[in-house]
Amino acid sequence: MTNADVAPIEIAEEDALRADMYDFIASLLRTEPSDELIAQVALLQGDKTPIGSACLTLAHLAKTIDNGLIRNEYVSLFIGVGRGEILPFASYYLTGFLNDKPLANLRSDMSAIGIRRAEGVKEPEDHIASLFDMMSGLIRGRFGRRFSIAEQATFFRKHIEPWADLLMRDIEAAKTVVFFAPVGTIGRAFLEIESQAFSMDGTG
Amino acid sequence: MEDTNKKDAVAGRRDFLKGSAVSVAAVGVAAVAGKSASAGEVEVVSGSGYRETEHVKAFYASARF
Fold it and tell me: Alpha-carbon distance A103 to A43, whole Å?
């Protein structure tokens, strides 16, 4: 980030929790999890709700599966030899092709927000982790100003809602999945909560 | 009238989120996010609006956009 000069914006407690969830899921889907990240996942607590019980499962897996195997699983799921089992990009899910119109639309919206892909990031911007980073940034006001719930809803409905639920289901049901299955479950449950909450805002 | 409806809707949304799994289920998610390798995949364009740097131009050229 190059915006250290931007003063932090105070946000409501429930919005901070939403941003935390986006950051959490993005951190697990962005790249092969580090030892540090896996150690932290092992400390997750939960309860009987779908997200809470998936967190408990995930913590258990983080404690019991070898870290190298977790990273291998990430590679075979999302990177693969040639390609992984799952291509977590909006354009691919919406059109069947990478780098197609949905990516161009996203770039245009990113430009209007005033953000661009960070230097050194190689994946196209419509990667799920990247989109979740953007949602978190909009919620936290990290992009220079506070974005209203209506603006967050517009971004979510355009770039995430049409495909991310299917992606999370694909992760849960993938052939080679163990560790990442509860990540898909958490993602799916969280997206459902987001969809419902946005529909309650009275903005449409 | 419309303002009242909107206020109700906002309160409803807040209550829904506070009562949802997000607020109670997962203790420790923020700590996980803090251990992530990258602080984020996007960065704010310095100044106002979009600035097409050499880096971005090179990328667009390579991506044939």
Answer: 36
